[in-house]
Amino acid sequence: MRTPLVVANWKMNGTVAEARALAAGVRDGLRRPRGVEVVLCPPFTALGAVRELLAAGPIALGAQNSHWEAAGAFTGEISPPMLAELGCRYVLVGHSERRKEFGETDEQINRKVRAVLATGMAPILCVGETAEERAQGLTFTTVEGQLRAGLAGLAAAAIGFCVLAYEPVWAIGTGQHAAPAQAGEVHGYLRGLLSELATKEVAQRVRVLYGGSVKPDNAAALTAEPDIDGALVGGASLSPQGFVAIAKKVAHKGVTVLRGD
Ligand code: PGA
Fold it and tell me: What is the pTM of this model?
C-alpha cells in the first residue's frame, strides 16, 4: 500500500513574492488532502518563505538539488544539513537537467543520495532515457544503469526511504508525455530491479513517480497504471489551479488504494 505522491518542481522560476503566492494557492486548494502526499520544491531562495506559508500543514517542503558534503569550500553549493534546517523533507537528486546542463555523474548522484539519507531526508532519484537512447532501444539499459549507480552501496532499509522518478528526457517540458502503458512498463521494470537491489517488501513500498509533461488532463490516466505512484510536475506546477487539479486526480487513486479496492 503506497500513498501516492505529487511533487512540484518549480525549477529556476519565481521571485520570493511569487513563490509565496503560488504556495498559498496550493495550500488553499488542498486544505485536507486525502489519498495523496504533496511536496513543493521551490528554488533555494524561496525555501524559507514557503516553509512559513506551509507551516504545520499537510504539504511538505523539498529542495531541487543538494551537494553531498555537509560543509566546506564548495562555493555556491548548498548542503543537506542546510536544507534540513530549512524544513526540507525531500530532495530531488539527479534530475536530467542537472545531469545534462551541469554534468552530474552517476557517481556524484550516488553520493548525493547517500548524503540526503544520512541527513534524514528522502532523496527523489530521477532516471530517464533521452530520445536517442529510446530510438536505439536503450530505454531499459539506460534507466537500469542510472538506478544501479544511484543506489550503489545502499542497504535494503535505506533504499526503502528513497523515492524514484522515471522522467523520460524527451517528455520533459515538451508537452509530449509518455503513453501510460509505455511508462507503466518502465515503472514495472524499475520495481523489479528494486526487488533485486533490496527486497521484494522494500520494492513494494518505494514510490516510483512519473515525470514529463504531466498535466491535469493526463494525470489520471498515467497514475491509473499500477506501478505509477504519483507525479513529478514541472511546468504545470507553476499554476496553483493546474497543480491542485493534478494532485486531486492522483488523490483519487490514493483513496482507492488506501481503501484496498
Ligand atoms: P515538465 O517537467 O512537467 O515541465 O515536463 C518535469 C520535470 O522536469 O521534473
Answer: 0.97
